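So, can you check this one?
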Amino acid sequence: FYPTLTNPGLISGYRAGADQWLGILRSLEHGTTKKLVNTEWWAYSPGAVAGWYPARGQEGSHQAVADVLGWIVHCQNADRWQFEAIQYHAVNVCSGRKGDAHGRPTEINLPDAFFCEYAGKLWRLGRYFAVKDICCRFANHYPRLVRCLVQGRPSPPSARNNSPGAQIQACAGLSRETSSLAICLANIGDTSQVVTIWVNSRARGVPKAILIPPEVEAETPLVPVPRLSFREDREDSRQAVTMILEGYCAALVEI
C-alpha cells in the first residue's frame, strides 16, 4: 500500500511499483496498455528455518494473508489500473516432512506453495483456502466495486517503514443485482483492532464472515466468525457490524 518508491526493495510498495510501470507502458502505447503481468509475489513471512519452512502457525497464516492484501490493493486501484484480470498461481507442489498427530506436514521446502506432497497425499495449504474462499468468492459474487472509506489508527512503524496509512485496509463490492455487499478486510499491523462496518441502508438477513486466523494448519479450512449481528443507530437509521481482527489477519464479511 506504500504510495511511493523510496530505496526500492527496502522502502517501497507494490502499489507504487504498479503505478510506475503503467506510467511508462501507457505513455509508450498512447494510453492503451492494460496488460501488466507480475510473475512473482513473495509473501511476507515471520521466519524461515534453514531451507525448510513451517507449514503451520504464523507462517501459514502470513502467506495466506498476503494473497488477500494483493487482492485488496488491486481493488482499491481498479479504476486507475484498469487490469483485465488478476491471476493467482503457484506452479510448484512443495515437499513436506515431520507429520503431526493428524498426519499433516508441519514443515515444507517452499513457503509460497498452494499444495504440499507428503506421505502419498496432496495437502492443501493456507494460500489455497485464502484464494478460494476469500479472493475468488469476492470476485465471483461481488464484482461491482464500490468505494470503501476506512477511518482508524495508522499502521505501526516497522523496521522498513513501509505501508503507511490506515492499519485496517479494505475494499468493498456489490453483487450483480446490488442486493448484497461484501467487504474484504486486512489488518496490516501486529496489534488486534476492533472493526466496525457501517451500512447506510437497512440490510436484510444475518451478516457472516470468514477469517484467516493468526495461525493456519495444512488441510484446514478458514474459520467462520461466530455470532455476528447488526447493531442499529437510531439517530440516522444506519446499521453496524462489529468484529475483532487480530494482527496480520484478514477476513471477508458478507452483508
